Amino acid sequence: MHPANEQQLTERAIRAAEAALAKQHYVSSVDVFLGMGLLAPSHIQDWKQRRVDFLERVIQGNLKKISLSMKAFHKWAQAKRLKPSETRYERRTRGGTVDLRFSKSGDWSIERRYRTHYVSPDLSERKRGNLEERLAQSLAPVV
C-alpha cells in the first residue's frame, strides 16, 4: 500500500474512533469499521445471527487494510489512555451460548483485539461498571 494511502486510512480510523468515543464514551473495533464505512449495520446483524461465520468476511477491504485500521485504532486508544475492557460477543442458542468469531483464523490473540473496547477514563468507576454491564447485555443477541 502506498504510504499516502496508508496515512489516509490511519486518519479515517482515528476520525471514526474519536466520533464513537464522543458519542458513547467507549469505542470498539466494530465502531471504527462502521464509522469508516467498511462495515454495514446489516452485516453486523447477519453476523450476530450466524448468517456470516466470521466478521472479517463482510468488512470491505483486504486483510492488510483491516490490519492497518486495527493497528491505528489500538495505537490511538493507547495514546489517549483509554481503559481497555474485553467484551464477549456471543449468541444464545438452544444448546447454550456460542462465541461469535471475528477472524477467519479464530486465533485467540486476534479475537481478543477485536473484542477489546476502550472506555473513556473520564467516566467514574460506577459509570464505567454500568457501561460494561450494559455492553455485555446488548451484545448478546436473542434467538
Provide the fold topology:
Elements: H1 3-24, E1 26-27, H2 29-36, H3 41-48, H4 63-79, E2 83-86, E3 90-93, E4 96-99, H5 108-115, E5 116-119, H6 125-138
Antiparallel strand pairs: 1-5, 2-5, 3-4
Helix pairs in contact: 1-2, 1-4
Short characterization:
With about 140 residues, the chain is of the alpha+beta class. Helix content is about 55%, strand content about 15%.
State the main characteristics.
three-stranded antiparallel beta sheet, about 140 residues, alpha+beta
Provide an overview of this structure.
Strand 3 and strand 4 form a beta hairpin. The model has no long low-confidence stretch (mean pLDDT 88). With 143 residues, the chain is of the alpha+beta class. Helix 1 packs across helix 2. It has one domain. The strands form 2 sheets. It has a 3-stranded antiparallel beta sheet. It has a two-stranded antiparallel sheet with strand order 3-4. Helices cover 54% and strands 13% of the residues.
Biggest sheet overview: 3 strands, antiparallel
Mean model confidence by pLDDT: 88
The fraction of residues assigned to DSSP E strands is 5-15%
Q: Roughly how many Å apart are the termini?
A: 41 Å
Individual helix count: 6
> Residue ranges: pLDDT <50 for 5 or more in a row?
none
Lateral strand order in the biggest sheet? 1-5-2
Order of helices and strands: HEHHHEEEHEH
Total strands: the figure is 5
> How many domains make up the 3D coordinates?
1
Structural class: alpha+beta
Rg of Cα set: 15 Å
Shape: globular
Helix proportion of residues, in percent?
40-55%
